[in-house]
Amino acid sequence: MFQIGKTLVSEELLNEDFVCNLNKCKGICCVEGDAGAPLDEDELTILDDIYQDVKPYLRAEGIAVIEEEGKYTMDSDGDWVTPLVNNRECAYLVFEENGFSKCGIEKAYEEGKIDYKKPISCHLYPVRIKEYSNFTAVNYDVWDICSDACTLGKELKVNVATFAKDSLVRKFGTEWYDELMTIQNELNNQKK
User: Fold this and answer.
1) How far are the Cα atoms of 64, 100, 160, 162, 192 from residue 189, in angstroms, in the given order?
2) To which protein family does this belong (predicted)?
């Protein structure tokens, strides 16, 4: 691990390869798991504010769950998450004709209806963030359903940090990401 500002960053972001391979997984990460997508506290009001603009993009099942349970729920660990349909897929998930899973929030964003892309935890994946009182842990989350993404990342020679650049900049800023790339370059020079 190494430190950038108030973050502790796992070296796996620089050492592990990863590029989402939607042709293989079809977005299964939005379907599998034991809880909804983790939400930052500030995202709760965003979901409240954008829901009516996102609602036309959602499935009837998702709308029913959201309107019964709320736009976000608290999981067993006391963290805010998106609600689930049948304790399985995210309530904001839609299935496209090609069988791919897609975020209804992201669809609304892509069509210019809202200016919020999707929950930062979804955008960051496979990077996971854990807030502590004195620092933020930034880790690579290994999940067997993403094995094709690891294979594609290795083929393309793209590491997790490069794959997640846009989301890491969104979360931590350009200066933070530039420092991450400086560390990557230093580590690469040490290997030579």
Assistant:
1) 54, 40, 19, 17, 5
2) Belongs to the Rv0495c family.
Does residue 165 have a pLDDT over 90? Answer: yes
The DSSP 8-state label assigned to residue 56 in this structure reads: G
* Among candidate residues 94, 44, 88, 93, the one with its CA nearest the CA of residue 70: 44
- DSSP secondary structure code for residue 88 in this structure: T
Threshold 0.85, pTM exceeds: yes
Smallest CA-to-CA distance from 108 within 72, 57, 39, 61 is with: 57
DSSP character string of 124-152? HTTEEEEE-SS-EEEEEPP-GGGHHHHHH
Domain coordinates in residue numbering, the chain:
1-18+133-177, 22-125
Cβ atoms of residues 26 and 100 within 8 Å: yes
Tell me the residue length of the chain. 192
